[in-house]
Design brief:
- By secondary structure, the protein is mostly helical.
- It has one domain.
- It is 83% helix and 0% strand.
- The protein contains three helices and no strands.
- Helix 1 packs antiparallel against helix 2 and helix 1 runs parallel beside helix 3.
- It starts with a helix and ends in a 5-residue tail after the last helix.
Amino acid sequence: MPLRLKEFQAHTQAELIQFLNADLDLAFTMIQTALIEAQYDPAELPGLLQKIRDAVRTVRALTGRVLDQTVCAKIHSRTDQLEILAAALSPDHP
């Protein structure tokens, strides 16, 4: 692979990883907001949970494009954790 292509790929990978981590950070912040909303304004909870599920779906769809398997595993782990927390907040959760 030519050097210029390798540099471009490395830059693209770094941008993708940064985006995925930022999306997960935002979704974890939404989890904290959902915890508050569940106590004080439960009517807002379904909308927040949908946004969190949307973030999970986006991250899962793009994670397969991450070439570094260690980074990919970390992103999968954070996504799994987010999904578990969102499920626990869901009104239909036992």
